[in-house]
TrEMBL record:
Organism the protein comes from: Salipiger mangrovisoli
EC number annotated for this UniProt entry: 3.1.1.96, 3.1.1.-
Family, per entry: Belongs to the DTD family.
Taxonomic placement: Bacteria, Pseudomonadati, Pseudomonadota, Alphaproteobacteria, Rhodobacterales
PANTHER family with a match to the protein in the record: D-AMINOACYL-TRNA DEACYLASE 1, D-TYROSYL-TRNA TYR DEACYLASE
Protein name: D-aminoacyl-tRNA deacylase
Length: 147
């Protein structure tokens, strides 16, 4: 699985003009299931993200996790994280999981984030979503369950 994590002051996602998920301080997690990904990889990635120390401590250093700060997570499916741009000018997405499997793993991953004790909101898989955020820092981290 691939994830792009952004530390945010707030974030929301709209579908057809209606807010379907929103959070205050915490993490916006854009997530993509790749072909061959498993629940075990989703478990590992969710646990790693929950403990990722990217929030400021009392001395201003990135030394606290979203769990430490009682922050929330907005988990949004983003198949374009599978983009292959090595050839030509149009990205290919053939390495992304098939839609049914991608949705299953997305829902599973969001559930694993929530199971860590993090208040979790989600987007809507496969929908045309409008994501708004205020990136705090800015802090943006790329993660891959394979790395």
């Amino acid at each position: 699985m691939r994830a792009l994590i952004q530390r945010v002051s707030e974030a929301s996602v709209r579908v057809e003009g209606a807010v379907v998920g929103e959070i205050g301080p915490g993490l916006l997690i854009l997530i993509c299931a790749m072909q061959g990904d498993t629940e075990a990889q989703a478990d590992k990635l969710a646990a790693k993200i929950a403990k990722l120390r990217i929030f400021r401590d009392d001395e201003g250093r990135m030394n606290r996790s979203v769990l430490d700060t009682s922050g929330a997570a907005l988990v949004v499916s983003q198949f374009t994280l599978a983009a292959d741009t090595r050839s030509g000018n149009r990205p290919g997405f053939s390495t992304a999981a098939a839609p049914a499997e991608g949705e299953r793993l997305y829902e599973y991953f969001a559930g694993r984030i929530a199971a860590q004790g993090i208040a979790t909101a989600t987007g809507r898989f496969g929908a045309d979503m409008k994501v708004a955020l205020i990136n705090d820092g800015p802090v943006t981290i790329w993660m891959d369950s394979e790395g």
